[in-house]
Amino acid sequence: MLTSGRTATRTISLFDASPFRSRVTAECDFAPLSTGPSRQQIRQWDRTMQFAVVAGKEALEDSGILGQSNPHRTGVMMGTACGSSTMSLDSEYALVSDEGKSWLVDEFHGSPYLYDYFVPSSMAAEFAWITDAQGPVGVVSTGCTSGIDVLGHAADLIREGHADVITAGASDAAISPITVACFDAIKATSARNDSPEAASRPFDRTRNGFVLGEGCAVFVLEELEHARRRDAHVYAERSGHASRCNAYSMSGLSDEGLEMSDAITATMDMSRFNPGDIDYVNAHGSSTKQNDRRETSALKRSLRHHAYRTPVSSIKSMIRHSLGAIGALETAACALAVEHSVIPPTANLHEPDPECDLDYVPLVARERTVDTVLSVASGFGGFQSAPVLNKPERRMA
User: Fold this and answer.
1) Domain boundary among 179, 205, 229
2) Active site (catalytic) residues
């Protein structure tokens, strides 16, 4: 879908969204029974955790690591912005409060799994139990940069010698009334309800907010030589990661995007790449007026004149914004861009914003050798993160 430029947006079907300002979203076509979990596990696990377990198992199978790692040297790290059970907490509150009519709730109607719903670490703990991972286990929650930051934390744990292998990723399934209401209140989401497929349009002059999504991506991280010794398929090397917090605004960036630019410069320094070495930038590209302009400024500041020569695109134009999970999903897209030498397009970019004047790969994917990728993320709370991925051979050249 990413290379075709097709979008995955429709009117919300998970609940009655008619009272809300924004009624469009990117819902996953997910049938848990056909992907492995039992009926009992589906009853116990929130959709966020279902995503994480299914994607995590697929990652482990794809890696070929099963049965080859020491459980005491194997860890699990999960990222999320909204916790492990947003949808379950929303529905359980409606149940025990009689749809919000009762201030004093009746706890006897609540699920026996409420404790797990309240504790974000339950997602990582559950997957660790299932896979017998007895090394470092934890959760990273830094808003919309969670999916990038958790991978950076996992890589640091391996680099510091705390583990040999870590299954790491991020999951969020927060398409619920409370989430939609929160973003409605600050008018951050698009109200282009009559054309869901075109609602997310990063860097376009007519953009009017992001579109909520959901999803999960999970990876198996290990030191490069460790992977090569067991003849593993290496999609990409994660050679740099940096995070900053702007201490400026809960939801905004400074005009020049200084904090984002600082994170980009720091990750390039760590990975030992220069601006001219970057073949592609996976943008945060949220489709909000403020962010797209500030991000453009940050890229110009950090990449200097190379910013105008480097293709930039936002896959949120197609899969939308899944909050804490999106950084992991974008990392997967970056790894596939490296593997297949193709840059995904920015969908719905028909009328470029004059203040967003870089090469945003509009509408059509571009075949091009991609050895080194920079990804950028920005999150509420002032978080700014940027990793660099590359072909291992690129660093050896």
Assistant:
1) 229
2) 144, 284, 321
Round to whole Å and give the CA distance between 270 and 387.
10
Cα gap 180→177, rounded to integer Å: 5
- Which residues are registered as beta bridge partners of 366? 343
Residues 217 and 275 occupy one common structural domain: no
The CA distance from 293 to 296, in Å, is 5
Phi, psi of 23 (to 5 degrees): -125, 20
Angle ∠(382,189,21) on CA atoms, nearest 5: 140
DSSP state of 210: B
SS (H, E, C) 296-359: HHHHHHHHHHHHHCCCEECCHHHHCECHHHHHHHHHHHHHHHHHHCEECCECCCCCECCCCCCC
Instruction: Tally the residues of the chain.
Output: 397
Same domain, 184 and 246: no
pLDDT band at 396 (very low <50, low <70, confident <90, very high): low
Task: Determine, yes or no, domain membership for 185.
Answer: yes
pLDDT in tens, 199-224: 999 999 999 999 999 999 999 999 99
| Nearest one of 177, 203, 206 to 192, comparing CA atoms | 206
Measure Cα distances from 54 to 16, 31, 215, 222 in Å. Answer: 27, 11, 11, 20
| Domain carrying residue 222 | 10-229
Count of beta carbons in the 10 Å neighbourhood of residue 288 = 24
For helices 146-159 and 326-340, the axis angle rounded to 10 degrees is: 70
pLDDT digits (tens, 9 = 90+) for 64-99: 999 899 999 999 999 999 988 889 988 888 888 888
203 lies in the same domain as 304: no
Q: Are residues 222 and 83 in the same domain?
A: yes
